[in-house]
Design brief:
mainly beta, 7-stranded antiparallel beta sheet
Length: 83
Amino acid sequence: MATFIIKGSATTNVTDNDLGGAVFVRCVATANAQTLTLKENGGTVTIGTNYFHLAGDEAIIEKHPTDEITFAGSVAAVGSPRS
């Protein structure tokens, strides 16, 4: 089980959102076969993608404050125990 500090409300269906400049973002698939896309600010350059196979799959993504996430699942800004 991971330990993290909650720094924002969970939201779903984000599109090109920097989540308030969050550096760590907890991402949870709310359905099967969802893809998360991380882009540089402005949404023109894709940094990478992550595929969530099943509902309930989760990951904590580290990003630059201005990087933007697009994801149909649930996301929330979090911090590590060191932040």
